[in-house]
């Protein structure tokens, strides 16, 4: 019983510590826009939804990537967004293959850093530079890499990095992170209003709570989920 209750809490603290202490960059690299989330998907969904893409806008993904990278965008296809699913010739998309898929309507490229099914690593810098030239966001899923390979987010031309606590960060399922770089922070608007992002325990303790006056914070907290219910249940 003791093991079951204590281990997830320790693992969660350890993964949070790793996230904040360097695996995602040294403190001087730390972006103010860096928040907890509970899976890689839960980081990519708010980006896909918060970009407010219009019919005809395009996003590039790889056909053989983990579904977390593809499904958040595919949902937007019913709204007319064009999801270009590119089949890599050799497991992961090369910069040349990405170049061939880019058009003036490309708003984003979303790929896994370390490919789930082959272990191949994409050329972060090559693809990131292409995205910068095309004015598209480069959204990277680091689920299979962060904790295994050091990364300093500001050393690469990437605009968002998501990941999970339960792989190389050795945390429990239901933990993860989503880092948004400045270009993402500018373009991604909040797509939900989660009470813990906008309120504190003191607010709730007040004799009356005026929900009409609640404002979303003007920081990355506006993207927060903080829905680690699974963790709470384990505790
Ligand atoms: C690249 C990648 N992303 C995400 C996940 C897990 O999915 P999620 O964190 O979105 O629930 C996996 C595998 O479990 C994965 O290989």
List key phrases describing it.
globular, alpha/beta, 15% strand, binds pyridoxal-5'-phosphate, 9 helices, disordered N terminus, 235 residues, disordered C terminus, seven-stranded mixed beta sheet
Topology of helices and strands:
Elements (H helix, E strand, L loop, with lengths): L1 H22 L10 E4 L3 H10 L7 E5 L4 H8 L7 E5 L8 H7 L4 E7 L11 H11 L2 E5 L18 E5 L11 E5 L1 H6 L7 H4 L2 H5 L23 H6 L1
Parallel strand pairs: 2-3, 2-4, 4-5, 5-6
Antiparallel strand pairs: 1-7, 6-7
Helix pairs in contact: 2-3
Bound molecules: pyridoxal-5'-phosphate (PLP).
Strand order in the sheet with the most strands: 1-7-6-5-4-2-3
Low-confidence stretches: 1-8, 27-34, 227-235
Beta-strand content bin? 15-25%
Biggest β-sheet description: 7 strands, mixed
Task: Kindly provide the radius of gyration, computed on alpha-carbon positions and rounded to a whole number of angstroms.
Answer: 18 Å
- Could you give the order of the helices and strands? HEHEHEHEHEEEHHHH
Associated small molecules: pyridoxal-5'-phosphate
How far is the N terminus from the C terminus? 10 Å
Question: In one word, what is the shape?
Answer: globular
Overall strand count: 7
Label the structural class: alpha/beta
Calculate the mean pLDDT score and round it: 83
Helix content: 25-40%
């Amino acid at each position: 019983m003791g093991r079951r209750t204590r281990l997830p809490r320790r693992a969660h603290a350890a993964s949070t510590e790793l996230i904040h202490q360097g695996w995602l960059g040294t403190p001087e690299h730390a972006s103010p826009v860096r928040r907890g989330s509970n899976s890689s998907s839960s980081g990519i969904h708010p980006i896909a939804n918060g970009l407010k893409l219009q019919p005809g806008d395009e996003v590039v993904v790889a056909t053989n990537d983990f579904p977390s990278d593809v499904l958040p965008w595919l949902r937007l296809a019913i709204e007319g967004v064009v999801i270009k699913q590119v089949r890599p010739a050799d497991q992961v998309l090369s910069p040349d293959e990405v170049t061939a898929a880019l058009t003036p309507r490309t708003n984003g490229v979303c790929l896994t850093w370390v490919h789930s099914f082959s272990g191949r690593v994409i050329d972060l810098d090559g693809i990131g530079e292409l995205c910068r030239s095309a004015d598209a966001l480069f959204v990277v899923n680091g689920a299979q890499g962060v904790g295994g390979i050091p990364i300093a987010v500001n050393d690469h031309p990437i605009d968002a990095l998501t990941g999970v606590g339960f792989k190389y960060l050795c945390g429990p399922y239901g933990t993860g992170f989503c880092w948004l770089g400045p270009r993402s922070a500018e373009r991604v608007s909040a797509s939900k209003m989660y009470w813990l992002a906008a309120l504190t325990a003191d607010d709730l303790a007040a004799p009356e709570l005026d929900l009409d006056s609640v404002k979303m914070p003007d920081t990355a907290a506006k993207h927060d989920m903080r829905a680690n219910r699974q963790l709470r249940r384990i505790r």
